[in-house]
Amino acid sequence: MGDRYNIHSQLEHLQSKYIGTGHADTSKWEWLTNQHRDSSASYLGHFDMLNYFALAENETKARVKFSMLDRMVQPCGPPPERPED
After folding, report:
1. Could you report the per-residue pLDDT of 40-82, keeping only the tens digit for each?
2. Exposed (0-12), middle (13-18) or buried (19+): which is 64, by Cβ within 10 Å?
3. 3-state class of 62 per DSSP?
4. What is the dihedral of CA 38, 40, 43, 47, to 10 degrees?
5. Distance (Å, rounded) from C-alpha 50 to C-alpha 56?
6. C-alpha 33: how far from its chain's center?
7. Maximum alpha-carbon separation in the chain
8. DSSP 36-61
9. How far are the Cα atoms of 21, 73, 78, 85 from residue 34, in angstroms, in the given order?
10. The pLDDT of residue 1 is above 70
11. Distance CA 11, CA 20 (A)
12. Separation of alpha carbons 29 and 76, rounded Å
């Protein structure tokens, strides 16, 4: 039983430390937003991926980088309306 509590507390610590891991109250929109931001950040961090996207879109690297940074603001659109409790 103590082992189960230890795993649960480790998971709570991980979720509080890193935003992208989610928690019990994470909505689908928040989860997808985190996934899109993580993916965009990874693409921007890997120079070869940025070159690939620039070549595939027939745009300059600076334009692709700017558009990816711009998409990180609201990658999944505005947040949905939350019902008042």
Report:
1. 999 999 999 999 999 999 999 999 999 999 999 989 888 888 7
2. buried
3. helix
4. -120
5. 10
6. 5
7. 58
8. HHHHHHHHHH-HHHHHHHHHHHT--H
9. 9, 11, 14, 25
10. no
11. 13
12. 7
Neighbours of 19 (CB within 10 A): 13
Place of tokens 């940074």: 69
Which of the 8 DSSP states describes residue 6?
H
Residue type, 14: L
Provide the token pair at 8.
Answer: 């649960």
Which pTM does this prediction carry? Answer: 0.72
Residue 81, token pair as written in the block: 């309306």
Residue in this structure with the two tokens 């990874």, named with its chain if needed: 42
User: What's the rounded Cα separation, in Å, for the pair 18 and 49?
Assistant: 25
CA–CA separation, 31 and 19 (whole Å):
10
